[in-house]
Amino acid sequence: MKITRVTVTPIAFKDAPLLNASGIHEPYALRSIIEVETDNGHFGLGESYGDAAALAVLDKVKTQLIGLDPFNLNRLRAIVKSTVAGMAPAGNSGAELAPGSHASKAVSNAYSAFEVALLDAQARYLNVPLVDLLGGAVRTEIPFSAYLFFKYAEHIDSPYEPDSWGEALSEEQIVAQARRMIDENGFKSIKLKAGALDPEHEVACIKALKKAFPDAPLRIDPNGNWSLETAVRMAELLGDDLQYYEDPTPGLEGMAELHRRTGLPLATNMVVTDFDEFRRSVAQNSVQIVLADHHYWGGLRDTQMLALMCDTFGLGVSMHSNSHLGISLMAMSHVAAAVPNLSYACDTHYPWQEADEEVIKGGKLSIRNGCVGITRAPGLGVELDRDQLAKLHDLYLSCGIRSRDDVRQMRKYKPDWKTVKPRF
Ligand code: GKR
Ligand code: MG
Question: Is the pTM value of this prediction over 0.90?
Answer without folding.
Answer: yes
